[in-house]
TrEMBL record:
Source superkingdom: Bacteria
Name of the protein in its database record: Carboxy-S-adenosyl-L-methionine synthase
Molecular-function GO term, any one: S-adenosyl-L-methionine binding
Classification via Pfam families: Methyltransf_25
Length: 242
């Protein structure tokens, strides 16, 4: 039975930094769908992009795969073109649960599930690299090098997808969209206590960039064509093509 996220429902003395541990894994599908507006639409869109850009005998990467939602969507849409999917996460708890999810469906496409830090993983012969709400958890100073590594590992015509929570450079716009996101969480049953405790837990762990910073990073890595293909409030999915 899918479990309801109650992690921040009771008052906590000291709120430790947010971690992708067993407790989070056990409620993760509920937590992510109630917290990220458009999450399901983005997962479907990743499949649709994959159907168009996956090239014969190349690799597809899902970096920070959690339970493998993007991997499953890619695997459903990739068709019979001898692609290999490499799904990476550095949380043991996530990876072991993801393996169960992947085993629950049959497919002709191989998936290699790796427990590792995405900063240590080689990217080679890739036609699609997905970072679905992962880059924002990497220390900001490590993000540019990762994007350069991805650019280098893509084949011509290859695509990187980067889904993120956005920070807005205009303060009033930032506040408005942030409040509207909190309204989305309230509408999904999160209390003020849950919202504020989770915010504290994420403060040191998740540092969103602005869209301008993402575009500059794509450019610095070597990409000349990039755009947002989805946005819902302060959550977006971007893509760049090599
Ligand atoms: N350095 C790192 N190396 C490897 N994994 C990492 C690292 N840092 C964080 N992670 C992993 O990135 C994932 C981020 S969740 C992605 C959702 C998924 N993509 C989805 O489509 O459902 C987003 C969220 O919960 O907001 C977690 O599983 C971390 O363990
Ligand atoms: O930005 C937020 O307020 C979130 O809750 C995003 C989120 C969703 C799932 C796990 C961690 C952060």
């Amino acid at each position: 039975m899918p479990k309801h996220d109650k992690i921040f429902a009771t008052p906590q003395q000291d709120i430790p930094d947010f971690r992708f541990n067993e407790q989070v894994v056990s409620v993760f599908p509920d937590m992510i769908s109630r917290s990220i507006p458009g999450y399901g639409a983005i997962i479907d869109g990743i499949g649709a992009i994959c159907a168009r850009v996956a090239q014969d005998r190349t690799r597809l990467y899902d970096l920070g795969c959690s339970l493998g939602a993007a991997t499953l969507s890619m695997r459903r849409h990739v068709g019979d073109n001898q692609c290999r999917i490499i799904a990476v996460d550095n949380s043991e708890a996530m990876v072991s649960r993801a393996q169960e999810h992947l085993n629950a469906f049959v497919s002709g496409t191989d998936v290699e599930l790796v427990c590792a830090d995405i900063r240590d993983v080689a990217i080679e012969n890739a036609s699609l690299v997905v970072l679905n709400f992962t880059l924002q958890f990497l220390p900001p100073q490590d993000r540019a090098d990762l994007m350069k590594k991805i650019y280098q590992g893509l084949v011509p015509g290859g695509v990187v997808i980067v889904s993120e929570k956005l920070r807005f450079e205009g303060e009033r716009l930032h506040q408005l969209l942030d409040e509207m996101h909190l309204d989305f969480k309230r509408a999904n049953g999160y209390s003020e206590l849950e919202i504020s405790q989770k915010r504290t837990a994420l403060e040191n762990v998740m540092k969103p960039d602005s869209k301008q910073q993402h575009y500059q990073r794509f450019k610095d890595a070597g990409f000349s064509e990039y755009s947002s293909w989805y946005q819902n409030l302060n959550f977006t999915s971007l893509m760049a093509i090599k």
